[in-house]
Specification:
397 residues; alpha+beta; 4-stranded mixed sheet; 13 helices
């Protein structure tokens, strides 16, 4: 599918992810994202002026959202560029990378930044005038909670869509769900070994002002909860008769991430190791039956593999956006993904879920793992609001 789209080795970053209503709760996602991008560029010795475009992934409104992309670019250090804001729930990063690669293949971009950011904390409460309402009562919506708790088409909470998929594909027991959560937590702990050597390969600490006199440097993910068999066994399913407890689903979070997309030659010039080649190869998307969000992941992944011209047997590593344990259980069951290549070093189920940058962090960790094991094909796949899913295939050589 793609022939010309490459990512420089170490041409990407992620901030730590902070559980909502913790240290990043009052930070502007746009300003914090730009500050992180600026710090990343300085650390890598890159100039903000090298970009001829920017795709900004963002799903939750912030003050001055109207100016989001050009404001972000100016704060980053390049007030000559801009671009669209991409918003597709948890498919935002994958879709933004797809658009960047497509633009590069068409010759529209030469060196484009895909940046993604979100703040789930203190999300907007929107009101619309309603002169015909009783006493002029307004129509209102909480951006985050109202949409987590009710799909306007499926008319059920997101957790119910996962339970629907579990039932539709042979059932999932609570014990199976709990075991998967424990396994994903153990894999996240892999990224913390050797003084967080894995995470330090891509993670940029962020500085936060807690008060007029107090600053905090957030270096690690904040608010990660340990998963143990004993602890999960005590938790009841969120929905009676279901398999998913609060310990078997992700938590909203705040954070940002970014990836440079460019041509082969420029990627080599920007790479920390010119011998490492990272090529985007394929993209896939799918929509599942109403109120069956997690079911869309498998056909999206299959499409991405087909457009890349490979199969599951060719994969060296797989990363997923997995807001519920059911997502990985069903995807692994249907596609026969070997557990030894499935979500090593972490996944959103454990480190959190700021919709826009979640996929970008997964893709960055996928690249880092592939480099570590000597290269190969990698797949990222994940669901998004509205029974939709998106997937990307890349090759590290």
């Amino acid at each position: 599918m793609f022939q010309k789209a490459f990512i420089p080795y170490k041409g990407y970053w992620s901030s730590p992810f902070s559980r909502w209503q913790m240290s990043l709760q009052n930070e502007s996602a746009i300003e914090l994202g730009a500050a992180t991008a600026r710090k990343f560029l300085k650390l890598r010795g890159f100039s903000p002026a090298m970009f001829d475009g920017c795709l900004l992934g963002m799903t939750i409104g912030q003050p001055a959202w109207f100016f989001a992309n050009p404001w972000f670019c100016a704060l980053m250090g390049n007030d000559k560029i801009g671009g669209p804001v991409i918003s597709q729930a948890c498919a935002t990063s994958a879709t933004a990378l797809y658009i960047a690669a497509t633009g590069l293949e068409a010759g529209f971009y030469q060196n484009v930044l895909v940046a993604a950011l979100d703040r789930c904390s203190n999300g907007p409460h929107t009101i619309w005038p309603n002169p015909n309402g009783p006493g002029g009562q307004v129509i209102s919506e909480d951006w985050l909670m109202d949409n987590f708790n009710r799909d306007p088409y499926g008319r059920v909470p997101m957790v119910q869509t996962a339970e629907n998929v579990a039932a539709a594909f042979g059932g999932v027991s609570k014990e199976e769900s709990d075991a998967l959560a424990v396994r994903r937590y153990e894999q996240y702990l892999m990224s913390l070994k050797n003084d967080r050597r894995f995470q330090k390969g891509y993670m940029i600490p962020v500085k936060v002002r807690l008060s007029k006199k107090k600053m905090l440097v957030l270096e690690t993910d904040e608010g990660v909860t340990a998963c143990t068999p004993e602890g999960l066994a005590q938790l009841k399913p969120v929905i009676d008769g279901g398999c998913i407890s609060f310990g078997a689903q992700t938590h909203p979070a705040d954070g940002n991430a970014g990836v440079i997309v460019t041509g082969r030659q420029k990627a080599g010039e920007l790479s920390q190791d010119p011998k490492v080649s990272i090529q985007l190869l394929g993209y896939g998307y799918a929509r599942a039956e109403k109120a069956h969000m997690a079911a869309a992941v498998t056909p999206a992944a299959q499409m991405a593999l087909e457009t890349a011209g490979i199969g599951v047997k060719d994969l060296a590593a797989v990363k997923t956006h997995n807001p519920f344990t059911v997502n990985d259980i069903i995807l692994g069951r249907l596609m026969q993904i070997p557990e030894k290549i499935f979500n090593n070093y972490g996944s959103p189920l454990i480190f959190g879920h700021p919709q826009g940058p979640t996929g970008a962090r997964c893709i960055i960790e996928l690249i880092e793992e592939l480099v570590q094991i000597g290269g190969g094909y990698g797949l990222f796949a994940g669901c998004a609001a509205g029974d939709f899913a998106a997937a990307l295939v890349l090759k590290v050589g």
